[in-house]
Amino acid sequence: MAATIALAGGFGCGGEPKKPAPFTALTVTRAFVVLPAGESPAALYATITNGTAVADTLVAVELAGARAMLHGPMPDMAMLDALPVAPGATERLGPGGRHGMVTGFTGHARGDSLAVTFRFTRVGAVVVKARVIGYADVDTAAPPVR
Amino acid sequence: MIRCPARARRATVILATFLAACARDDSRGVGGPAVTLPTPYPRPSFTLTGTDGQPFDFQARTRGKLTFVLFGYTHCPDVCPVHVANIAAAMRVLTFEERARTTLVFITTDPDRDSLPVLRSWLASFDSTFVGLRGPVEDVTRLAASLQVAAAMFGARNPDGSYEVGHGAQVIVWQPDDTARVIYPFGVRQAEWAEAMPRLVGRTPTLIQRITGKS
């Protein structure tokens, strides 16, 4: 199965994509990496929308020079091996819910943007631009998962 | 040493049960998404170690202050830093005098990784005046239970050797009268904190604010 590479414009590069993603696409939007506090890991948030008629599964998130893991929500925040995305469903990686934990995230500043690869079992790699924000920005950039 | 309220010692229940027993209620005037405690907590007496390495007598050092208390750990990339950052941002609505009567106390549930310098550095990235406390896991667990906060749950090791520490995510708020009447669950927005902050600190509302009901 050929991997599909979709470039969905990240929030940091002029906001939402200029052209709405076709309904038949699997898209990743509103991707953010939150600068770590002290020596702690960084957080990664994003919105994944499966506009296709086929289920898919997020199995990895990759950033250059850093390591990302998927974690579940409170209370135990256990590591996740995969995140299924049903046909037509939207899954958020957001504060208080499932989220990405990024270790080794150094050399970046608030306002930077960087490429993040979301790897799915069916469509393959979806590469987006993620904006680097601070924790005080999370409230507006990535509202809590309630 | 931790001295827990007798009532709380008798009532160590899991967080879900506790929250189910509470009702969102603005009747006490603090507003926002606060959850009213069925029975208010007096300001507790306990001593843990501050980031300066000295004993920190919580009751004596915070008496009369608006005090936000939460349990957490600095390796948490999500709930803990978001909570602390939002409270720090909302504190900007306070006057200089009100801010001097307000503090945040962060109690680590992960003393193995949260050394005092790590705790200090982490808190300083939000607000250098925030207080970090550390103590033996058993003491912190007992304190959390006395305040009906879910105890720390240490997760399995990740491939890189790191691990997660689940814990109750609520913020307990002691007002200047040394009584906690409400807790705030995770998910409170900065604007909601900012709206509640003047009332929590005991600011006297103006006539217009009393009429409109807004801070």
Describe the SSE topology.
The complex is a heterodimer of chains A (146) and B (215).
Chain A: E1 6-8, E2 26-34, E3 42-50, E4 56-63, E5 66-71, E6 79-80, E7 83-85, E8 90-93, E9 99-103, E10 113-120, E11 124-133, H1 138-141
Chain B: E1 2-3, H1 6-10, H2 15-21, E2 23-24, E3 35-42, E4 45-50, E5 55-57, H3 58-62, E6 66-72, H4 79-90, H5 96-100, E7 102-108, H6 116-124, E8 131-134, H7 137-146, E9 153-154, E10 165-166, E11 171-174, E12 179-184, H8 190-201, H9 207-212
Parallel strand pairs in B: 6-7, 7-8
Antiparallel strand pairs in B: 1-4, 2-3, 3-12, 4-5, 4-8, 6-11, 9-10, 11-12
Helix pairs in contact in B: 4-8
Explain what you see.
The complex is a heterodimer of chains A (146) and B (215). Chain A has 146 residues and is mainly beta. Chain A is built from one helix and eleven strands. In chain A, strands 2-3-9-5-4-10-11 form a seven-stranded mixed β-barrel. The longest helix of chain A has 4 residues, at 138-141. Mean pLDDT of chain A is 85; it is low at 1-15. Chain B has a single domain (2-212), classed as Glutaredoxin. Chain B contains nine helices and twelve strands. Chain B has helices at residues 6-10, 15-21, 58-62, 79-90, 96-100, 116-124, 137-146, 190-201, 207-212, and strands at residues 2-3, 23-24, 35-42, 45-50, 55-57, 66-72, 102-108, 131-134, 153-154, 165-166, 171-174, 179-184. In chain B, strands 1, 2, 3, 4, 5, 6, 7, 8, 11 and 12 form a ten-stranded mixed beta sheet that branches. In chain B, strands 9-10 form a two-stranded antiparallel ribbon. The relative contact order of chain B is 0.21.
